[in-house]
Amino acid sequence: MANKRIVIIGGGPTGLGAAYRLHELGYDNWVLYEKSDDVGGHSTSHKDPQGFVWDEGGHVIFSHYPYFDKLIDDMLGKEIHERVRESWVYLKDVCVPYPFQNNLRYLPKALQISCLLGAAKAAASRNGDATNFRDWTLSTFGEGIAEAFMFPYNSKVWTTPLDRMSKGWIAERVSVVDFKRLLENVLYEKDDVAWGPNNKFRFPLHGGTGEIYRRMARRFPDKVRTGKKLAEVDTSQRKVSFADGSGDYYDVLISTAPLDLLATMLKPADTRLREAATLLEHNDLLVLGFGLKKKIDTGKCWVYFADPEMPCYRATFFSHYSPFNVPNGDTEQYSSLMCEMSVPLGQTVDVERVLEQTLCGLIRNKILDESDRARIISRYQRRVAYSYPIPTLDRDRALAVLQPALAQHDIYSRGRFGAWRYEIGNMDHSVLMGVEAANHIVKGDQELVFYSS
């Protein structure tokens, strides 16, 4: 390719993945613009005044790609903390190892029987005709497992009726059932906890997940411009304009901005694209942190909550990810719990009320004691816009309009919200989308992750 000007919008995993690859290739005619004052996107990290580090939600490092593994090694070296995943599901009166459906032996007998009978019925009648996520859940797991965990938990995460969601995003995100395996686990009282790509994971020793991306950006400091919020993309002049009045011209644009917002920024305005963008749905995330002057002595990494009385769907023992997520790296004196609650778009939240409800839930589930209230020295809160790109039944129809139209203008919309495909929304997917976009633009290589089915 000729020496075309490449402009990258967004300094998260995808934007920095593209930037890092261009730097590796020795390609110099590019620049990256990030709206925040720091890089990392939703994979950034924050330190509160008490010295606790918090991510914008629960991130762990696991990978499908050797390139991503090498990148992490290059960025962090030996400054990494490794863990074997130990995660659990909390119901009202019981705690079950994850995946829930593989560890039914922990349930009370009546619920255990209900789950097994439902799974047996589903296994006998499975026909593959499910047209949405709710029906797929019933036909895959049966009514018992669905009602006990899958329905209440996923309703909390997605804040969307499950029958409005596609089943096509599932892939490795959900452990499907093998009835013979479920029955053997119950009869022989076997734990079955190793499922999933993140059963082992790594985490930066210092600085939270955001440290990965801060170190990437330091490789090319003159190319990264922060405090630049995108306001308009003029496709006829090939110009991007920012909220501060500045702008830049491009030959090729790699955008990691949310696709629905990008569609509204295009000039000249395209009614068809704006209408398609209205079909894309997402929710926000409320991150609640409790920093304690107390050691939490447990091997658990994170826990899921199906109980509707608990507003959060997940709690992470964040001080277990790295000792330096607490003040002075002193996990003998300090610990931290990070909880996540999905918030429907446009909904206001009484954060203090939710903090108290969450704390009560942690105490009710015996994760904390009532006496620990006096040991809380940090109560952290952050609302994160654009958390989950919801795989609704209309999503693919919208993407089929938006992505080809953008490609005609040499706009590559990539990343968790640029692609708007949750099934390729992990950090490793996101970085590789940027890397492969750069490879395609410069060398003509095929983009494998973005075009994966």
Describe this structure in words.
- With 453 residues, the protein is α/β, with parallel strands linked by helices.
- The chain has 3 domains: 6-45 and 206-279 and 392-443, FAD/NAD(P)-binding domain (3-Layer(bba) Sandwich); 100-187, no CATH class; 281-390, Alpha-Beta Complex (Polyamine Oxidase, Chain A, domain 2), CATH 3.90.660.
- Helices cover 32% and strands 22% of the residues.
- It is built from 13 helices and 20 strands.
- The chain has helices at residues 13-25, 66-76, 109-125, 133-141, 143-158, 179-187, 210-217, 259-265, 271-277, 318-321, 351-364, 395-407, 427-443, and strands spanning 6-9, 30-33, 45-47, 53-55, 80-84, 87-90, 95-97, 200-204, 224-225, 230-234, 239-242, 247-249, 252-255, 266-267, 281-292, 302-305, 314-316, 335-344, 376-390, 411-413.
- It has a 7-stranded mixed beta sheet with strand order 7-6-16-17-18-15-19.
- A hairpin with an 8-residue loop joins strand 16 and strand 17 (314-316).
- Helix 3 (109-125) crosses helix 5 and helix 8 packs antiparallel against helix 9 (271-277).
- It is globular.
Topology of this structure?
Blueprint: E1 6-9, H1 13-25, E2 30-33, E3 45-47, E4 53-55, H2 66-76, E5 80-84, E6 87-90, E7 95-97, H3 109-125, H4 133-141, H5 143-158, H6 179-187, E8 200-204, H7 210-217, E9 224-225, E10 230-234, E11 239-242, E12 247-249, E13 252-255, H8 259-265, E14 266-267, H9 271-277, E15 281-292, E16 302-305, E17 314-316, H10 318-321, E18 335-344, H11 351-364, E19 376-390, H12 395-407, E20 411-413, H13 427-443
Parallel strand pairs: 1-2, 1-13, 2-9, 6-16, 10-14, 13-20
Antiparallel strand pairs: 3-4, 5-8, 6-7, 10-11, 11-12, 15-18, 15-19, 16-17, 17-18
Helix pairs in contact: 1-13, 3-4, 3-5, 4-5, 8-9, 9-12
